[in-house]
Amino acid sequence: MPSCSPSRSPWRRPLLAAGLLLALIGTASAQDSTRSDWLRNPAMGNYKAYAEFKMGHYTEARHVWETLTEVGNGDALFNLGVLAEDGLGEPRDLRKAETLYTAAARAGNFKAQYRLGLLYSTGETLSRDSARARLYLGMAAQAGDTDARARLAALDQPDLALSPYQQAESLSAAGRHTEAAALYARLADQGDRSAQTRLAWMHEAGRGVPRDLAEAARRFRLAADAGEAEAQYALAVMHRTGVGQDKDLPASLHWLKKAAAQGYPAALAALQSGSAAGLY
Questions:
Q1: How far is CA 168 from CA 124, 130, 171, 183, 198, in A?
Q2: How far is residue 127's CA from residue 119's CA, in Å, rounded to a whole number?
Q3: Can you give the residue ranges of every domain in the chain?
Q4: 265: closest CA among 48, 3, 28?
Q5: Which N-terminal stretch is annotated as signal sequence (predicted)?
Q6: In tens digits, what is the pLDDT along the chain, a chain of 280 residues?
Q7: CATH ID of 21-276, from 3.40.50.720, 1.25.40.10, 1.10.1060.10, 3.30.1380.10
Q8: ∠ CA 75-73-142, rounded to 5°
């Protein structure tokens, strides 16, 4: 770890950053840009960090995101929260994650807004706080997040049973990742493209399942073929970087345009950056 028309929440989406500009000009190495480059163009910095995350280089990714917090970048704050919550490259620290998610939410990041709403509503890893849950879920819902709307409805109607997908989200929020992955897998096998995408991210991060970029790519492709914009964007990044997929610039652009056509924010930003740079 998007407000155009987000459908299901981005889970923790490590690293759907604002654009692919760096890859478009030919490199994903964190050593090829300077700190001033990242601050001048956060989209570039976020992409670099995302590429490092995909390769399991969490320290390098953190360095870029920490730099971008100097300009209050919401994506960077959210992704630092992901690293802290999951203990990726650092000790797991839920209070640190809460602080980072809160800062990202206040910066307008709807991924963080949904994440906080989910954590406060389930009360598993953070203390249950219905008022805060409503606040943050309401912010995400206003940005167009349908999962946030569903969670708000569940808060208003406590007798309303959660859907299997919502149950999987709750398991993930409680840190029960193996159980969440199993439920996502069952839903994916039934054709739920959002669950397929969630499971792909879990394979990419090694959360509840073995870290397996090939399996992540396979599942992203299934979800992308089914029309899931988030998966289409993730597949575009993989084809740009050659991480998990063969490097294939035409294929990357194909999936990027597919995601942008659905109004996916990161894909739109990538296309706009590429166009401004004369790359498209």
A1: 14, 20, 5, 6, 10
A2: 8
A3: 21-276
A4: 3
A5: 1-30
A6: 433 334 455 444 444 443 344 344 344 444 444 788 888 878 777 777 877 887 788 999 999 999 999 999 998 999 999 999 989 999 999 999 999 999 999 999 988 999 999 999 888 788 889 999 999 999 999 988 888 888 888 888 776 778 899 899 989 888 899 999 999 999 999 999 999 999 999 999 898 999 999 999 999 999 999 999 989 988 988 888 888 888 898 998 999 999 999 988 778 877 776 554 444 4
A7: 1.25.40.10
A8: 60
Contact, 237 vs 24, CB < 8 A?
Answer: no
Separation of CA 121 from chain center = 20
Q: Is 74 exposed, middle or buried (0-12, 13-18, 19+ CB in 10 A)?
A: buried
Question: Crossing angle, helix 74-86 and helix 58-68, to 10 degrees?
Answer: 140
> CA-CA distance, 83 to 99, in Å (whole number)?
13
Tokens of 4: 């155009």
Pull the structure tokens for residue 61.
């990714």
Specify whether the CB–CB gap between 262 and 229 falls below 8 A: yes
Quick one: tokens of 265?
């924010």
